[in-house]
Amino acid sequence: MAEALATVSPSGKQASFASRSRAEYLLIEKGSQQPRTLGSAFAKPVSDTDLVDASMKKLQAFRQNMDQAYGACADDCYTMKVGGEGTLAEAIAFATAW
Fold first, then answer.
1. 18-22, 52-56, 65-69: least confidently modelled range
2. DSSP string of 27-38?
3. d(CA 26, CA 78)
């Protein structure tokens, strides 16, 4: 599943927009806690000249705020950033390890 999330593009409008992009950033959390959504980090749209970097920072800050408010919401996490840290192979290994 981790590989599919990183590499598969939605099929809608691919012909119109030539959207065959792969994920530039992955954040994988795991643990026994209830899953959470971090989508509220983007209730206010990101506005920056570097949307990817600004989005990552906004997501990370929101995640830290959730952990501060509720306690640790995951036992462990893994991040991959194209041109930075991690690889897809490491992300898959992390996601599938018990």
1. 18-22
2. EEEESSSPP---
3. 8
Q: d(Cα 22, Cα 19) in Å, to the nearest integer?
A: 9
pLDDT for 43 equals 95
**pLDDT per residue as tens digits for the range 1-36:** 666 666 666 666 556 655 667 888 999 999 999 989
Q: How many CB atoms lie within 10 A of CB 27?
A: 17
Can you tell me which residue has the tokens 């705020």? 65
Query: Is residue 8 classed as helix, strand or coil in its secondary structure?
Result: coil
| Pairing relationship of beta strands 76-81 and 25-30 according to DSSP bridges | antiparallel
Name the E strands within the chain. 25-30, 76-81
